[in-house]
Amino acid sequence: MGIRSLRTASISTGVKRSKVWDQSAVVTNIGQLAYESIATVTVGAGGLSTVSFTSIPNTYKHLQLRCLARTTAAVDNDAAFLNFNSDSSANYAAHNLRGNGGITAASGGVGSSTVIQRFAGGNQSSINLGAAIVDILDYASTNKNKTLRDLGGYDFNGTGNIYFSGGLWINTNAITSITITTSQGGNWSQYSQFALYGIKG
Amino acid sequence: MTVTYSTIQTYTIPSVTTTFTLSSIPSTYTDLVLVFGGGTVAPTGVYIRFNGDSGSNYSTTRMSGWATNNNSARSTNQTRVEVGGSWSDTNHMVVNLQNYSNTSINKVGICRTSDATDTVAAGAILWRNTAAINSIAFSTDATNFAAGTVITLYGIKAE
C-alpha cells in the first residue's frame, strides 16, 4: 500500500495510535468524482439580501446547492425562498417532514417560490448557523417540471429542527439562474455560504 | 471549473473494535462528507467526537422512523454527538460537515442514517467550538463496530 498524498489523513484505532500505512486498513487513491464547483457566494460582514447564481451552464445532469446560513431577521430560525429563472409567479410548491426534538410534523403548500430548510435566525449567536443540502434534479431537461429535495436543519443546544423537504417548480425550462432570499425579510449574515455544484450524468 | 469532490481516505475496519479515529484531516476543503457503510455487532447509537474534545460541547436534534412509528428527540451538553443508530451490520450513514475548517463559526453537521433491518433517521448536530475539525473519533454505546465496515471521508472544495 503506497502513501498516495500528504492530503491523505492518517487513521488510529482504539488506544493504539499509528499511521495508516502501518495498519491493515484499506486506503484508496485520492478519488475524483464527476462533481464540479460552479460558483460560491460567501457573505461578508455587511450581509447580503439576495444570493444569486446566474448563467448556470446546462452541461450537468443535476445541481447540488450546499448551504450554511444565518439570517438577520429577529427570529430563532429561518427558511430560504428559492426562485428559478426570475420566475416569481405562483408556480412553486414545497412540502416537508420535520422533527423539532419533541415531535415530528409535516407541512407544505404552493406559492411564488419554493422553500429550503432550515437556518439560524438573527436571535441566535452570530457564530451559529444552520445547514442544508439541496439536490436539484435533471435541472437542464426541457421535458419535465423541476423538482428538488433538501435535507437541512440546525441545532443550538436546546433548540433545533431537522427537515426533509421536497420542492417543485412548475416549469419545463432549463434552470439557468437561482435566487435565494430569506423568508422573514432579513439579510443573509456574515459567514453564510451558498455553494453551487454540478454533477455529471 | 474543476473537479472538487475527492476521497480523502477510506478505512475498512479489519476486526471488531469499540472505537476508531480518522485523524490528520487536512483543512484544504470546504466541506467534509463522511460515508459509513457496515455497522455494529449489536444495536447501538453511533457517536463522533471532534479533535479529541471530551467536553460537554455537543448537541443534536434528530428524527427517526421505524415500522409504523416516528420520533424526534434532542440531546444537549453531550461529550460526544450521536450521528445515527446502528441495529446491525447493514447500516448506511452519511454525515455532512460544512465549512469544517472555518475558525469563525461553531461546527454544524447534517446526518442521515438508514438501517436495512430497522430504522431511517436524520439529524442536525452542533459542536460548540470554532476550531477547524482535524480528527473524528467514532464510538458506540457499549458494543463493537463490525469487521468489514467501510468508512470513507470525502472532501468538497468550493470555488
Q: What's the SSE pattern of chain B? A: EEEEEEEEEEEE
- Going by helix content, strand content and strand pairing, the class of chain B is mainly beta
Q: Please tally the β strands of chain A and state the result.
A: 13
Largest interface summary: A-B, 65 and 67 residues
Instruction: Give the SSE string of chain A.
Output: EEEEEEEEEEEEE
Q: How large is the count of helical segments of chain B?
A: 0
Fold and architecture overview:
The complex is a heterodimer of chains A (201) and B (159). In chain A, 0% of the residues lie in helices and 47% in strands. Chain A has 201 residues and is mainly beta. Chain B is mainly β. Chain B is built from no helices and 12 strands. In chain B, strand 8 and strand 9 form a beta hairpin. The N and C termini of chain B lie close together (8 Å). The interface between A and B is large, with 65 and 67 residues. Strand 1 (10-13) of chain A pairs antiparallel with strand 2 (20-23) of chain B.
Structure keywords:
heterodimer, A: about 200 residues, mainly beta, eight-stranded antiparallel β-sheet, four-stranded antiparallel β-sheet, about 0% helix, globular, disordered N terminus, B: about 160 residues
Topology:
The complex is a heterodimer of chains A (201) and B (159).
Chain A: E1 10-13, E2 35-42, E3 50-53, E4 62-69, E5 77-84, E6 92-99, E7 104-111, E8 114-120, E9 130-137, E10 146-155, E11 160-169, E12 178-182, E13 193-199
Antiparallel strand pairs in A: 2-13, 3-12, 4-9, 4-13, 5-8, 5-12, 6-7, 6-11, 9-10, 10-11
Chain B: E1 5-12, E2 20-23, E3 31-38, E4 44-50, E5 58-66, E6 69-78, E7 81-86, E8 91-98, E9 107-115, E10 119-127, E11 136-140, E12 150-156
Antiparallel strand pairs in B: 1-12, 2-11, 3-8, 3-12, 4-7, 4-11, 5-6, 5-10, 8-9, 9-10
What's the gist of this structure?
The complex is a heterodimer of chains A (201) and B (159). With 201 residues, chain A is mostly beta strands.
